[in-house]
Amino acid sequence: MAAYVGSFFLTAVKDASAPQGAGFTGYWCALTTLTAPWGSDGLKEMRREPVEFFSILFSGWINPVFLITLFVRWRRPNGRLAWVLGVIFVIMLPSCWIVFAKAHARPSVGYFVWTIAMLTAVFAGALFSEGKADRAESPPAVSAVSRTK
Fold first, then answer.
1. Contact between 62 and 89 (Cβ < 8 Å)
2. What is the rounded CA–CA span in Å between residue 11 and residue 30?
3. Phi first, then psi: what are they for 15, rounded to 5°?
4. Are 12 and 23 in contact (CB under 8 A)?
5. Which helix (H) or strand (E) holds 8?
6. Which helix H or strand E contains 67, and what residues bound it?
7. Which domain holds residue 82?
8. What's the Cα-to-Cα distance from 44 to each of 11, 38, 59, 101, rounded to whole Å?
9. Which whole-number Å values give the CA distances from 129 to 112, 125, 135, in the listed order?
10. Is the alpha carbon torsion for 122, 124, 129, 130 positive or negative?
């Protein structure tokens, strides 16, 4: 979670045409994509460029869906809702790429830290719980080997 929070203070997006540009922080990107679709310009954009509108909208929803997914996985790690939200979260991630393409921007280090931190937080529990199941099966095999000695 520290990497996730820290990614908001790193440069997440840079202008593709300006190689040495300062870029925008993850915080700015999150706030902009969360609020832009709801303004009058955003609603006009929905009529003119629906793909761009929905890619910005879904990009803005990634952080709330991620946090809700973490909460649900914490409460019921193997529940159906946890897996559905995890799938929705992963499906939403490419919407950022559409925004990058339409805005002539390129991702920077903050974007990659943000993405990896979220994927790790959401799916690490599932990976470790599968490992626990494998270890739970090991003791009977170990005890069977120790009885033969």
1. yes
2. 12
3. -70, 125
4. yes
5. none
6. helix 50-75
7. 2-147
8. 29, 10, 18, 20
9. 26, 6, 10
10. positive
Copy the structure tokens of residue 72.
């649900």
- Of the chain, the percentage scoring pLDDT greater than 70 comes to 83
Asked which of 4-8, 114-118, 135-139 is least confident by mean pLDDT, the reply is 135-139
Q: Which amino acid is at 92?
A: M
Backbone φ and ψ for 106, nearest 5 degrees, come out as -130, 145
SS3 state of residue 116: helix
Q: Scanning the structure block, which residue is given the tokens 């929070």?
A: 5
pLDDT in tens, 8-40: 999 899 988 876 777 999 999 999 999 988 887
- pLDDT score of 145 more than 50: no
CA–CA separation, 127 vs 96, rounded Å?
Answer: 26
Q: How many domains does the chain have?
A: 1
d(CA 24, CA 21): 9
Q: pLDDT tens digits for 87-110?
A: 999 999 999 999 999 988 999 999
